[in-house]
UniProtKB/TrEMBL annotation:
GO terms for cellular component: dynein complex. This is Dynein heavy chain 9, axonemal. It comes from Phaethon lepturus. InterPro entries: AAA_6, DHC, Dynein_AAA1S, P-loop_NTPase. Coiled coil: none annotated. GO terms for biological process: microtubule-based movement. SUPFAM superfamilies: P-loop containing nucleoside triphosphate hydrolases. Belongs to the dynein heavy chain family. GO terms for molecular function: ATP binding; dynein intermediate chain binding; dynein light intermediate chain binding. Transmembrane segments: none annotated. Residues 158-484 form the Dynein heavy chain hydrolytic ATP-binding dynein motor region domain.
Amino acid sequence: QVEIWLNHVLDSMRATMRDEMTEAVMAYEEKPREQWLFDYPAQVALSCTQIWWTTEVGIAFARVEEGYENAMKEYHKKQVTQLNTLVTMLIGQLSKGDRQKIMTICTIDVHARDVVAKMIAQKVDNAQAFIWLSQLRHRWSEEERHCFANICDAQFLYSYEYLGNTPRLVITPLTDRCYITLTQSLHLMMSGAPAGPAGTGKTETTKDLGRALGIMVYVFNCSEQMDYKSCGNIYKGLSQTGAWGCFDEFNRISVEVLSVVAVQVKSVQDAIREKKKSFNFLGEDINLVPSVGIFITMNPGYAGRTELPENLKALFRPCAMVVPDFELICEIMLVAEGFIEARALARKFITLYQLCKELLSKQDHYDWGLRAIKSVLVVAGSLKRDDPERPEDQVLMRSLRDFNIPKIVTDDVPVFMGLIGDLFPALDVPRKRDLNFESFVRQAVLDLRLQAEDNFVLKVVQLEELLTVRHSVFVVGNAGTGKSQVMRSLNKTYQIMKRRPVWTDLNPKAVTNDELFGIINPATREWKDGK
């Protein structure tokens, strides 16, 4: 009964989204785009802008074939104007939801603009050119009243799954290549397997493709504890809902389990290939929703990873992921945060991180990769919104300095400050301070019977700043340098400010992995929560 009710609720939500999309597509040309996008939810507005991008490029191609040579260039000018309007809106006052919506549309718009610019540069005059066919193109079918996504010779029905107002990835040439591989694998009734080093976007690209097709993507972190029953239960759920499953670091599962998993994956793929409505899985008849997708990501060559068995390898199309273009990602994210001089600032940003990687000492806690870059960009965006009159290079310099200084060891600080001074000459921007918060910190430190020295207060403030952009933070240092007291002081500050206390003491040496993270009881299949 509960299952029937849930299915009914989900179907009605999908029908509502489809109706919204129908209305939004029809209303797109009735008013300026910057007004139109406030009338619809984020997911609907984004999908419709992508549908109209495909439509307008198609119209431009048709005009080129009729002999109007500048049609594509004129459309490119229109794109630049639309994008500049959105960037201007981002600098102004917006609600959190509207800001996220416009940032997401900006991110996709920049890629759309670059694709058109590339086609102009290569003098493409035909809609059948591979550079255009290889893009993920959304279109609206009037007869079927459905949204379809096409890429190369594959076509997918948009799933209308409610995904919320979520950010989208910056699309680089690497993302495009991964999209093609994964969509072709689905088109051939197979599964996809992005592989590559950490931080190259294997999981995120899979999730982003799911968002583009309106499909829910569930990410499972695989471990040695996973057995064939727990994997089988996950595949059973995915098959009945039509959702995608992304199995992270799949080659950490032991090889004995993987050979059984191969049989389970093959039975799902065979059922899709034979267009069955239901099939037998682990001795049980279950319904099949054909949009189901199974993806695995692998980090090759690390300790504790196994080689995939041949029968499992044959079911997955591999896609090699390499280090992405950091400068392009940085530039597009700066545009989405409302920066006008994004290109020049992105070059300075990436140059600084490359030099830090080469010139600073090698510390275990240093991270100059994509995740660290993304965190600083979020900080830069919030600083720009708080102080819109300040020049953009000062905003970026302040965020790069204030976000990185807390993690840099004392010996490296002069080198780091020298690099900042070289890249941003003659700039000396004061640190952004919250004097009210600092007074609470001083009160908390005194309540704990400690001395409220400026350096100690600064460390508490820095920890609080890091926690606003990071889910978890390591406090690193030698014994007796005040690591625990900094955290206790921040917790006491939260208590004084009537904010929810976050402090729980736990010695990891005193608990096992299973007690800390939780475990499935192998006999009863019940899940026991961790600490």
